[in-house]
Amino acid sequence: MTAPPTLPAWPYPRWIAHRGAGLLAPENTLAAFRLGASLGYRMFECDVKLSSDDVPFLLHDDTLERTTSPGTGVPQDGPPHDAIAGAQPWRQLATRDAGQWHSSAYAGEAMPTLAQITRFCRAGGHCLNIEIKPTTGTALHTGAVVAAQAHSLWHGAPVAPLLSSFEVEALQGARLSAPSLPRALLLDTLWEGWLQAALDLHCVALVCNYTLWTPQTVAQAKAAGLRCLSYTVNDEAAAAQLVAWGTEGIITDRVDHFRPDAPLAT
Ligand code: G3P
Ligand code: MG
Question: Which domains does the chain have, with CATH numbers?
Answer without folding.
Answer: 15-68+111-252 (3.20.20.190)
